[in-house]
Amino acid sequence: MTERRPLTDSGDSPLPVSLKQARLPRWTPPALALAAAGVGVGIGLAGGLTSRIQWGLIAAVLFIVGTYALAAIVEGGRQAKDRLATSLVWIAFLLAVVPLASLLWETVARGTKVLDGYFLSHSMGTLPDALPGGGIYHAIIGTLEQVGLATLIAAPIGLLTAIYLVEYGRGRLAKAVTFFVDVMTGIPSIVAGLFVLSVWILILGFGPSGFAGAMALAILMMPVVVRSTEEMLKLVPNELREASLALGVPKWRTILKVVLPTSIGGITTGVMLSIARITGETAPVLLLVWGAKTINNNPFEGAQQSLPLYVFQQWQQGSEASYDRAWAAAFVLIAFVMVLNLLARGIARWKAPRGGRS
Question: Are the C-beta atoms of 146 and 213 separated by less than 8 Å?
Fold first, then answer.
C-alpha cells in the first residue's frame, strides 16, 4: 500500500512512499530475555549478590529497558510503548508464576519422601509423632466427610439464594440478602469457627465432631456459591426466558429446564472453587474438630482429623519425621484440590449445552 507525496516546489512528480514500518524480528524478545538474564547474573556476581531473586529483578529491569530502547530506535515511539506494556505484563506473569512453581516443586520434592501406599492407608494410631511411620488415612476420611457435609449444606442454600436474587429478588428483602451475602464473603474463618463453637458446643452442649467443623466450613462456602451462581445466572440471555414464558411454561419450570442447564457449567465451577477454598481451612477445624490420631468414620460424634489440621499439627511437632509427614500431607491436599478443579472442568464440559442437542 502506498501514498502519494505532494508536488515539490520544483514541480517534480509525486513519488510513492511505502507505509510499511520497520519491525523487530520475532526472535528479538527471547534473545533480549536471554541477554538480560546473562547480564543480570553477571552484575549480581560482580556485585556480590547471592540471591537469585536479585539476579532476576536486575534481568527484568534490563529486559524492559532494552526492549523499549531497541523498539524506539527501530519501530518508533508508539510501538515502543506497546512493547513496554507487553514486557510489563510478561514480567508480572513471571513474578506470579515463579513463587507458585517454587512452592509446587518444594512440596513435590519433600512430600514424596514418605508418600507411598502405607502412608495413604494407615493412621497415626499410637505412634509418637517424633518417630517415623504412620499415615494420613484418618485425615483423608475426615476431610472427605467434613467437606462433603459442608457442600451438602451450603450448595443447595447458595444455589436457591442466587436463584431468588436473580429471578425473584425485589425490594427490601433482596437488598438485605445481598448485604448479608457481601458481609459473609469477608468473614474470617476463625470467626465462623467461634460462632459455631459458641452456639453448637457451648450453648447447645454438643461435643467436638466433624459435623461441627462442616457447619463452619459451610458458612464460609455459602457466599462464594451465591456470588458465583448469581453471576452465571445473569449471563443467561433474557431471550431464552422470554421464549420459554411465551410458550406458556411456568417460571419455575423455565428456571429448572432452561436457565439452570444453560449456566450449569459456570455454577459447577463456582461450587468446586468454593470447595477448594474450604478444603484448606485449619482454624475452624482446630476449634471444632480438635483432631484425632485414630480413625473416626462417624462425623457426628467424637474428634476427627483433617488434612490441613494434620499438616499443622505435624509441623508443630518439630521432628524430621513429622516434617516429612507434613510435606507429604500437603502434597496430597494440593493433589486433592487439583482433582476437584479437573472434575469441575469435566462436568462443565459434559453438562454445557451443545448445538443440535435436544
Answer: yes
SS3 content of the chain, % helix, strand, coil (to 5): 70, 0, 25
- Tens of pLDDT, residue by residue over 201-260, are 999 999 999 999 999 999 999 999 999 999 999 999 999 999 999 999 999 999 999 999
**Contact by Cβ (8 Å): 49, 55:** yes
CB 284 within 8 A of CB 192: yes
* Partner residues linked to 290 by β-bridges: 304
SS3 3: strand
The grid coordinates listed for 279 are: 478444603
CA 48 – CA 292 distance, rounded (Å): 50
pLDDT of 319 over the 50 cut: yes
Threshold 0.70, pTM exceeds: yes
Confidence of residue 340 (pLDDT cuts 50, 70, 90): confident
What values do phi and psi take at 174, rounded to 5?
-65, -40
Angle (deg, nearest 10), helices 77-111 and 52-74: 160
Residues 6+ apart with CB under 8 A from 228: 266, 267, 269, 270, 271, 273, 274
The full DSSP string for 195-219 is HHIIIIIIIS-----HHHHHHHHHH
Q: What is the tens place of the pLDDT at every residue in 64-114?
A: 999 999 889 988 888 889 989 998 998 899 888 988 898 899 999 999 999
Query: How far apart are alpha carbons 322 and 129 in whole angstroms?
Result: 6
Question: What's the one-letter identity of residue 233?
Answer: L
CB atoms < 10 A from the CB of 50, how many?
Answer: 8
